[in-house]
Amino acid sequence: MIRTNDNDMQHDASEEEVAKLRDAIVAFEPFNEQEAADKQVILRALETDQDCFNRSAQAHMACSIWVVDPAYAQTLLVYHNIYDSWSWIGGHADGERNLRAVALCELEEETGVRHARIVPCGPGDIFSLEVLTVDGHEKHGQYVSSHLHLNVTYLAVADPEEATRIKPDENSGVKWAPLEDAIRLSTEPWIRDRIYRKLIDKLAQIQPRI
Questions:
Q1: Which residues pair with 64 in a beta bridge?
Q2: Would strands 147-157 and 128-134 be described as parallel, antiparallel, or unpaired?
Q3: Do residues 53 and 61 touch, judged by C-beta distance below 8 A?
Q4: Quick one: three-class SS letters along the chain?
Q5: Cα(82)–Cα(96) distance, integer angstroms
Q6: Tens digit of pLDDT for each residue in 32-45?
Q7: Which CATH superfamily is domain 6-203 in?
Q8: Which of 44, 69, 6, 58 has its CA nearest to residue 129?
Q9: 117 close to 156: Cβ distance less than 8 angstroms
Q10: Best CA proximity match to 72, nearest among 175, 174, 186, 176
């Protein structure tokens, strides 16, 4: 009998997830010039850097989750301690290849919301792509050098009545707000004008599933 090593099985599963993600990004139809350009940057990293799912890479995979209510009128925001701004929700891949699962996990970790559902948005359920710059900063008492997030964004619907909580080491507030308030409340000009504006405009093209 031929026995398959567990590590080999895990490696094969990991490679399958990477292939699925790559195929989904290849099939992703950019909404604007920013997405078209950033799509190519992300694909190049997936094809050339086997460490791009780890923070050790200068440019590494990350994900965000744009959470809205069933009427697509409000979005869920956190007050991010490092960015000192109301912000969307997301995090690093940290070796995990299934970014859809990471996004839902980050949502629960950062806000306590457990019952959100991803909205199908085409191949791989990808809603948006972006390359995000992160300035150097201190975290947990250590300096983190400036780097890039190769970001895959998912759209999710959640119930505003579900209980929320903060994650003190990352945020100091969680709240639902009208969509346009994501722009008004942000203190990050590039994210506000390039990303949140884009996400709101893209959302307007999707029929709410109430």
A1: 90, 153
A2: antiparallel
A3: yes
A4: CCCCCHHHHHHHHHHHHHHHHHHHHHHCCCCCHHHHHHHHHHHHHHHHCCCCCCCCCCEEEEEEEEEECCCCCEEEEEEECCCCEEECEEEECCCCCCHHHHHHHHHHHHHCCCCCEECCCCHHHCCEEEEEEECCEEECCEEECCEEEEEEEEEEECCCCCCCCCCCCCEEEEEEEECCHHHHCCCCHHHHHHHHHHHHHHHCCCCCCC
A5: 23
A6: 999 999 999 999 99
A7: Nucleoside Triphosphate Pyrophosphohydrolase (3.90.79.10)
A8: 44
A9: yes
A10: 176
- Kindly report, residue by residue over 96-135, the tens digit of the pLDDT: 999 999 999 999 999 999 999 999 998 999 999 999 998 7
Provide the token pair at 89.
């929700």
Q: Which residue has the tokens 């859809």?
A: 100
For residue 29, give the amino acid letter.
E
Q: Which residue has the tokens 């919301």?
A: 113
Contacts of 28 (CB under 8 A, 6+ apart): 35, 39, 122, 123, 124, 126, 129
Q: Which residue has the tokens 């790559």?
A: 22
Helix 6-27 vs helix 33-48: crossing angle, to nearest 10: 160
The domain spans of the chain are 6-203
